[in-house]
Amino acid sequence: MPRLIKDNQVIDNEWQVIPADFDAELPTGKLIVPLARWLDNSDNTNLAPWLGSEDEVEKVAEQLVQAPLIAINFPTFMDGRGFSSARLLRERYGYRGELRAIGNVIQDQLFYLKRCGFDAYDLREGTDLEAAIASLNDFSVSYQAATDTAEPLFRKRD
Questions:
Q1: If we measure between CA atoms, which residue out of 100, 108, 98, 104 comes closest to residue 124?
Q2: How many CA atoms are closer than 13 Å to the CA of 79, on its beta-carbon side?
Q3: Among 132, 82, 122, 77, residue whose Cα is nearest residue 102
Q4: Cβ-contact 84, 107 below 8 angstroms
Q5: 7-58 residue pLDDT tens
Q6: How many helices (H) and strands (E) does the chain have?
Q7: Fewer Cβ atoms within 10 Å of its own Cβ: the N or the C terminal residue of the chain?
């Protein structure tokens, strides 16, 4: 079974990601499907949505906050729109379920993904997941406020 990082631990990945161009009948089990397909079947508890870079959180936030898991796809490591989507879901819309980074997620991004509200990371096959967990804490201090630190560093002066 594939493995991923969730809540700073390596666990089995029970969810299968269905690509956007998949047009056959869905297999059984827990599936992460493209947003449009999930919206058509959001009452199915074995389905969770994945958002692409082009998907606008604001338009579907009311439905999304009901999902047990939301995956955000990073098509390339240079596409940072998923960071913004995660912060919107956590801060503006109060999403409290699992927020998973999928796609072209690299270890160097994990610290920043965590700061934006992600708590699960489906990294590329072959990645050393134990080393990746350590990179979640690459920095001990952050200047800016984020989902994991409500107050910026300059406000914490003694």
A1: 104
A2: 16
A3: 122
A4: no
A5: 999 999 999 999 999 988 899 999 999 999 999 987 888 999 999 999 999 9
A6: 5, 8
A7: C
CB atoms within 10 A of CB 52: 18
Alpha-carbon span 109 to 76, nearest angstrom: 12
Domain edges within the chain? 3-156
CATH fit for domain 3-156, picks 3.30.300, 1.10.287, 1.10.8, 3.40.50: 3.40.50
pLDDT tens-digit map of 84-111: 999 999 999 999 999 999 999 989 899 9
Answer yes or no: are the C-beta atoms of 154 and 31 closer than 8 Å. Answer: no
| SS3 annotation, 3-30 | EEEECCEEEECCEEECCCCCCCCCCCCE
